[in-house]
Write a structure and sequence with these properties.
- By secondary structure, the chain is mainly α.
- Helix 1 packs across helix 3 (about 30-40) and helix 2 (about 20-25) packs across helix 3.
- The protein has seven helices and no strands.
- It folds into two domains: about 5-60, lambda repressor-like DNA-binding domains (434 Repressor (Amino-terminal Domain)), CATH 1.10.260; about 75-125.
- The chain has helices at about 5-15, 20-25, 30-40, 45-55, 60, 85-95, 100-125.
Length: about 130
């Protein structure tokens, strides 16, 4: 079985992300990612979950407990999740907007997330509803 660091490096490279870019996605510095990859540091549960979301895989896969990266019960909203590159682009472009515009964007994202979650809950209870 591969170590967490080996899996993390492999997945990061598959996505074409540098250690710095991956660190930006989880609000960590490049050296933290390097330490994870070298096995000198272990991430907490929250960070593991963020990595699983970024790489669209299970935490068990990241930890080397399985060779199957697909989570057993993937959330239906995964298909609408932006790529890490899109997230970085959105983040960097939003920094240049006024505080009022940033607030409006945040409110819109939260609203759309609520709508999507409600749609997903309806579909989960009745697959015929969309």
């Amino acid at each position: 079985m591969r170590s967490f660091g080996e899996v993390l490096r492999s997945e990061r490279e598959k996505k074409g992300l540098s250690q710095e870019e991956l660190g930006n996605l989880i609000r960590a510095v490049k050296s933290t990612i390097s330490q994870y990859e070298l096995g000198k540091r272990k991430p907490d549960t929250e960070i593991l979950q963020q990595f699983a979301d970024i790489f669209k895989c299970s935490v068990d896969y990241l930890l080397g407990r399985t060779t199957n990266p697909t989570p057993p019960a993937a959330d239906i909203t995964d298909e609408f999740r932006p790529t890490p590159e899109d997230e970085l682009l959105i983040f960097y472009k939003a920094r240049d907007l006024s505080e009022e515009s940033q607030k409006l964007i945040k409110e819109q994202i939260e609203h759309l997330h609520r709508l999507e979650r409600e749609r997903w809950e309806r579909q989960k209870t009745d697959p015929e509803k969309k």
